[in-house]
Please model this.
Amino acid sequence: MDFSINKHSKLIAFISLLLASSLVYSQEEEDDFFFFEEETFEEDIADPLEPINRVIFNINDKLYRAILSPAVKTYRIIPEGVRVLISNFYTNLTTPFSAINALLQLDIPNTDSEISRFVINSTVGIFGLFDPATRWGFEEDREDFGQTLARYDVGHGFYLVLPLISFSSLRDVTGRLGNSALNPTNYVWDPELDDWIAFQGLDTVNDFSFDVDIYTSLYDSALDPYVFFRSAYVQNREGAVNQ
Amino acid sequence: MKKSPTTTLFLSLALTLSLSLGISSQALAQFSTPAESVQNMLDEVFAILRAPDFDLSRDRQSIDTAVSVAFDTNTIAQSALASNYRELSAEQRAEFEELFFSILKSTYIERLDTYTDESVEVTGEEVDGNRGTVMSLVYTSNSEIAVNYSLRQRTNGWFIYDIVVEDVSLLSSYRSTYRSIIRRSGIDSLLNDIRTQAAGLE
Model:
């Protein structure tokens, strides 16, 4: 934390905050008080493996802080414009399986749009480095196999935290395996393990270079970060499925 | 371009919360619609962030002082605890409200100086009785993030009580966390944890 702030001015600020709050709320009616009383909040997701998940969650956290975060800080020497090109390149590689999943979900307009995106960006966009397709009206709408399973009413099953990969559920892990099988790079490139790790590693580090280390802030603010991120994961996936 | 959901999630939450919690408003300004309220907040925060002499450690105090004017800290506290809020005495409610909001501020204002290039566009609003939703898009160098604000109408205007980033409600995430702690070790234990946490941030 920043200790440079004068303690007294902080105290005065806080008192004025409280005064402002009381000005605002003193006029409220009592019957309006329990604003959320009528709402019910359902459970996020089944989590029978919670003890194991928590251990992996903690290991992932240490790996993030010890390896990924420092690597990302160094990596930011690369200008942002270049990092955007790299990001585009990796995104483009995954567009074919987004198209296949859109098709499996019988979403023909999006299938068409994702195929168009891949063709345009791979050619005019120079191997996917640029994204002219978005400017030409083919907006990105990514679909993955987890969303396809959800489309056919496959539930999450239960929550899973995977080593290195992090938050997931049984359904979405299955989806991830489906995605890997459909990844076009599998058919043109049969890499050695260390090449493959470098390839995936660049994607991950590049991806996180746009991030601002909010992870640690959220982690520190959450009291029980495991539950916080589990809830956020489920909400984010539900939103993606319902789109 | 959107990448993994996790990354998008982190980035989105950071960006929005930092922008939104770092608000400097005129004292008790009145805005007749939710969109006006949000737009005003965004205008002000960008004006501060883009000032040539912006300095987080210096401007933090003025930002901090004005935050509660745009946010409905009372509703935020109720929402974070849901029905458990009932179990608290008036003093405990006031204490929780104060501590929880100060934790949110400390967490997100810390990151404010990393956002200067992003732009935000308010794209729509919905009003249902005394609740409102304002839709917006945040444009970053490599993505477009959907951000919804939930607002509540009070007698003197509209106030934000939740921010929903790429379908993740900030308050729902805290609520799940707090519910789990309360279930495991009781509401007094939660209050103690929050006190310890807030003291550590001072």
About this structure: Residues 2-242 of chain A form one domain. Chain A touches chain B through 67 residues (CB under 8 Å).
